[in-house]
Amino acid sequence: MRNFRTLRRAFLRARRDTGFVAAGIPLHLALASQWVWGVTIVLKANAWAVVPIPFALFLVGIPTLTAVQRHRCRALLGVDVPRPAPTPERRWPRRAVRWLSSARTWRQVGYHLLLGPLLAAVELLVLAAWAAAVAGVTAFGYASALPVYQTLLCTAGGVVLLCVAPWLAGATARTEARLAPALLGPSRNERLRRRVEHLAESRTDLIEAVDSERRRIERDLHDGTQQRLVSLAVNLGLARATLTDLPDDARTAIDEAHREAKEAIAELNDLVRGLHPAVLEDRGLDAALSGLAARVPLPVGVRVDIGERAAPVVESVAYFVVSEALANVTKHARATRAEVTVERIGKLLRVNVTDDGSGGADASAGSGLNGLARRVGSVDGTFRVSSPAGGPTTLIAELPCEL
């Protein structure tokens, strides 16, 4: 049973490959006729000036020929020949010039015009091998008038060809299946470029989705949990103020609960601002950074000059860069003052944070600077730190305004 299944698969594969080869003969012979037409014009009419005519007609038919070959590979072999990216120009003269100057066009010309006649010859050879194999195997049925040794030779040759023909058909089909994507589809560089563009778009979508989810969580906490805590703190405050005849233990418990509620509100405020400050979305970087600087326990000068607002994701990254940088200044720099400058230079948003601290910040030491560099890199930005011993420390992040 296993041998029967193996034989059946081999037969089906040979039939598929032979069908693919046979379907290519009319196409490739039609292309070979272009050569015959051009040579006939030159030899008979001696008219070299009209030689470009058949070639021009061939160029016009290239898109159709390529589409037919693409369908042939997909339908008969299951091989997908990717379509090249469309030409971006809208006006047909520019599109024509760009199409004629494209390397992919001339790869298709090479496939159809140069390889076409050669492939047609190989495909005819495959069919001839099948025909000779069938004729040889059935020699006993029609060659009774021939000598026995000739009949035996024909039969033996037919059996040999019957074994060789499937291999020849498969080899031809595999060769064409490799040539078609390489010459009719996009080149390796084009495929890599399209993959890079796809990955960049996917990463941008992911970043925007994460930022949108962060904003949603911030709104839910602000409008839900935070409001409940505020209501709880107000009720506890009212209870402390109005219920004056309670025992001392109960008043102490209410006081402690009121204090814990206010601390929870403060911590939740910090968490919400850490997720996504609402003022950033409502009023932009200038207001958000001014509010951030006001909470830092040292003087911070803020200058924001960006004109038109950048993409929301970019503004979010810029905000968190400044937030983390000021947190590092507060914890480690022993500085007395910091300066924050955000400006738009062309299509870049440049964030500059400088402090007069002791310096020595090192991103390679595993500090929070590595996280900032990764956050900036997630939007294709650049991140640099200059922090010589003794200071000052300067942090510069350059972010693309549009993703």
Automatic annotation (TrEMBL):
Domain Signal transduction histidine kinase subgroup 3 dimerisation and phosphoacceptor, chain residue ranges per copy: 213-280
InterPro entries: HATPase_C_sf (IPR036890), Put_sensor_dom (IPR025828), Sensor_HK_TwoCompSys (IPR050482), Sig_transdc_His_kin_sub3_dim/P (IPR011712)
Assigned EC number: 2.7.13.3
SUPFAM superfamilies: ATPase domain of HSP90 chaperone/DNA topoisomerase II/histidine kinase
Listed Pfam families: HisKA_3, Sensor
Sequence ranges assigned to domain Putative sensor in this UniProt record: 21-184
Designated name of the protein: histidine kinase
Species of the source: Actinacidiphila bryophytorum
